[in-house]
Amino acid sequence: MIAIGCDHAAVELKKAVMKYLEEKQIDYIDLGTDGQTCDYPDIAEQVCRKIISGEAEKGILLCGTGIGMSIAANKIKGIRAAVCSDGFSVRYTRKHNNANVLCMGARVLGTGLALELTDIFLETEFEGGRHQQRIDKITKLES
Ligand code: RB5
Q: How far is the CA of 18 from the centre of ligand 1 (A)?
């Protein structure tokens, strides 16, 4: 299950990502916004809570730049959110950082690239091994 959310700057991109998930038969929960102006930390919180509760495995957060969403999401314990604009970064934030939230900027990326990044994010596994001890240290920083 994927939790997805956006602010008013990224409604069209969110629709495109949801359509893509439907085509790939990947279940998702849409936490808004449907178009109303909103504050991105509120949406980031809702998406991240779904991950922390175990209802969703990963999240996708979209705003104008992806940056506000990532800053907000990373305040929540257990969330490792990465704002990415290229495939290499997405691949390695999964392999090495075990990122559980992908943030993207609707004012930064074209739809085609955003869908490709979504695909990489969902398909790439965490490598574990020496990277796990680094994740453990990140987790320690939360307390
Ligand atoms: C909204 O105008 C914009 O500030 C927001 O979408 C995002 O880019 C913040 O990081």
A: 20
**Cα 48 to ligand 1 centroid, rounded to whole Å:** 18
63 catalytically annotated? yes
Pairwise CA distance, residues 93 & 82, whole Å: 7
Q: What's the one-letter identity of residue 85? A: S
Choices 1.10.357.20, 3.40.1400.10, 1.10.10.60, 3.10.350.10: CATH for 2-141: 3.40.1400.10
Q: Tokens 């490792």: give the residue.
A: 80
State the pTM of this model.
Answer: 0.98
CB contact set of 54 (below 8 Å; sequence gap of 6+): none
Reported as a single tens digit per residue, the pLDDT across 89-98 is 999 999 999 9
